Amino acid sequence: MNDAGRRARWVLGFAWLLLPVHIAVAQQREFVTSERLTLGTERLRSASVRVGDIDGDGDLDIVSASGRHWPQQNQLFVNQGRAKFSILRPLGTDQRTSYACEFADFDGDGDLDIATGNDMAPGEIFLNDGGGHFTLHGEYGDVTSLRSLLAIDLDVDGDVDLIATCRGRPNHIYLNDGQANFESGSTFGKNTDSTIDVAAGDINGDGHLDLVLANRDRQPNEVLLGDGELRFTRSMPFGSGEDHSRSVAIADLNADGNLDWGIANIGSKNQIFLGDGSGGVMRVVEFGSSDSQSYTLAIADMNQDDMADLVVGNLNQPNAVFLRTDNGLNFQEVSFGKASATYGLDVGDLDGDGDADIVVANSDDLNRIFLNRVNRQ
């Protein structure tokens, strides 16, 4: 994800201005696609997509991870400006069972590299030559049921590490040696957790990163409080206790100085948990339908009113943007796209017009871009 969206998985701050709110209400948003706004022409089993400037030309490019349980080719899409993705490059020579991809500067040379995470196959690190061409640097990790990656400097040593969730198996931390080589660190959560996604942020205000886990298979979701020594042993469960959750994103949604988090659920409404500043939950706000089939979620300002909105990708239901309508937590739902199987999404200004667009990773369908437009009707 880029600054507008993905990094909401761990920290976002917002100024809360009243005047732009009234402007945003008057300007209805729509998110439009076309046959020219697909990522290639293949219907892959894609699970993850990220945006970032890989070639230093000032516009945002895209990487997609595909396969899930069946080996397929991961791909790069190079933006020629104004969301014209006219160049497609394969990422690597192997086809793998990829569930996740992340952009980050893993070797500290100032450009974006790529980590991929695979189901029952080692992950891979690809280094950027600065011009958007990638070379396989090496493999990392265990052969496990990886479902998501988060790139973040977890040990605060100045380089970017990786956190991997592994459904039904131990979740892993992989520490970067500063040269894009990753060693297995500690595990977190229970060894049998069905963790699908993780976000990181200082939930209890002690200066250390904590982890928020989205679990499925009727397991409780959890906040794991960190001690600054890569130990996440203090658990603060939240949710129903029998959750089917697939995605989590973090931001201070009610502007009280404490981090909150959004959860995408299967078979129930999606939820916002307002943090109390100590790791617990002060209040729960539900949004979406009672039979939501939500697989992915991002937090970003989608209508330039300086308030955090929520973008949700669904299975066999239209995707939706939930726009904040006031300084509280009331939403206007704006659906986009046809019902598909959206496993992942990211947001960023793909066409350079100043607002955040959406790219979705679909399984057994075309991956698509949705441009953010003001509906003047």
From TrEMBL:
One Pfam short name: FG-GAP_3
Keyword Ligase: no
Keywords, alphabetical: Signal
Keyword tRNA-binding (UniProt): no
Top-level lineage group: Bacteria
InterPro entries in the record: FG-GAP, Integrin_alpha_N
Name of the molecule in the record: FG-GAP repeat-containing protein
Classification of source organism: Bacteria, Pseudomonadati, Planctomycetota, Planctomycetia, Pirellulales
